[in-house]
Amino acid sequence: MEWRILATAAELFRTKGYAQSTTRELAGMIGLKKASLYHYVESKEDLLYEISIQSLRQIDGDVAAAIAASAPADALRDLIKAHICSALGNRDHHAVMLSELRSLSEPRRQQIVKARDAYEARVRGVIVAEQAENRLRSDINPKYLTFALLNLLNWTIFWYQPGGALEPEQLGSLLASIFIEGAGAAGAVT
Amino acid sequence: MEWRILATAAELFRTKGYAQSTTRELAGMIGLKKASLYHYVESKEDLLYEISIQSLRQIDGDVAAAIAASAPADALRDLIKAHICSALGNRDHHAVMLSELRSLSEPRRQQIVKARDAYEARVRGVIVAEQAENRLRSDINPKYLTFALLNLLNWTIFWYQPGGALEPEQLGSLLASIFIEGAGAAGAVT
DNA sequence: GTCTATACTTCGATAGAC
DNA sequence: GTCTATCGAAGTATAGAC
């Protein structure tokens, strides 16, 4: 039951935003009255916290596994594909984690920020390693390469259409190619 | 006075989110009591609408001017720089427009979506033109190149530090290079 | 475990004095 | 133009019956 509440809350929060979502509406989506929700959940904010922490545990685990199983030369491409597949596979959770952080009150907000930073450090670690192997440009501070990559990846969930032309894995490959090879025509006179 | 209210509201909404911001707090930041605000403003939502529409007018105008003054071969790079400079120069407005759209009620929400789509179409237009001139890869649907570029650009305002190492124009050049040339080491064996 | 009823708080917005 | 006072609505959460 708890899992059902969490999944429904994630869907609701993603669609309407945390602050605009009411416990009454959430209960209604599950087929309960508002008060009955509090038999399972301590507070509305607990739901946001659980959604956020689960989202980060999931993507960090998925990406770590992908890297571990990957040949060094494929690490970055596999990271990108794993990130996209994980984020799109947990779209509601992930979108809520990304956009509703400021609605968490202080002890737990910092906890989510730390988990987010840890994931970011994992991504940066791969980028730094690729630079050391001369597979990524070294003329750009890895900090900016990491930001650029996370921009590219994170915000995809806000426009991706689940029934569209590209499966998550294809989209991941596409984004990996844009990030690594670039959008410029190879050999173009620029 | 109105401009001061709008700028303060944008700053407040960006920091705390629209729904979590109260008119009492906004009034306090200006040095007024809550009721006095309503001498200048009809409703809280009016502020959000004005912030959003101004943000889009600004960036669309800035980018259009940059393209018009640009040699064809530099159009995309100039677009990227203009986008970054405009967005960072109106950081509060732009961030609010990007992240608080769902708090607008229906007649005006669609209006903002339309303005956003129009700007997106402008960006896509340049990308399509660059493909036609063989300066951008044609093996990727321009729709995805546009999404990727806007991901890269739009979400930069959420981590950019105004006093950091890079000025907006430098950051724009950097992001242009990542998007066009890619992050991969030139000639690397991948 | 689910309900009705309600306590408690806070918000956006208004009324009306000055 | 700014204030104090307040209205009416809506929200989270709780009490207590069943």
Walkthrough of the structure:
Chain A is mostly helical. The first copy, chain A, has a single domain, classed as Orthogonal Bundle (Tetracycline Repressor, domain 2). In chain A, 68% of the residues lie in helices and 0% in strands. Chain A contains 9 helices and no strands. In chain A, α4 (44-68) runs antiparallel to α5 (75-89). The longest helix of chain A is centred in the middle third of the chain and has 27 residues, at 106-132. Chain A is elongated. At the A-B interface, α8 and α9 of A face α8 and α9 of B. The first copy, chain A, binds a DNA duplex (18 and 18 nucleotides) through α3.
Features:
mainly alpha, 190 residues, DNA-binding, homodimer, Tetracycline Repressor, domain 2, 9 helices
Rg of Cα set of chain A? 19 Å
CATH architecture descriptor name of chain A: Orthogonal Bundle
The biggest sheet of chain A, with number of strands, parallel, antiparallel or mixed sense and barrel status, is:
none
Largest interface (C-beta under 8 Å) = A-B, 43 and 43 residues
What is the number of domains of chain A? 1
Name the overall outline of chain A: elongated
- β-strand number of chain A: 0
The low-confidence runs of chain A, each spanning 5 or more residues with pLDDT under 50, are none
Strand content of chain A: under 5%
Average pLDDT number of chain A:
96
The quaternary structure here is homodimer
Count of separate DSSP helical elements of chain A: 9
CATH homologous superfamily identity of chain A:
Tetracycline Repressor, domain 2
List the topology elements:
The structure is a homodimer of 190-residue chains.
Chain A: H1 2-16, H2 23-30, H3 34-37, H4 44-68, H5 75-89, H6 91-99, H7 106-132, H8 142-154, H9 168-181
The first copy, chain A, binds a DNA duplex (18 and 18 nucleotides) through residues 22-24, 32-36, 38-40, 43-44.
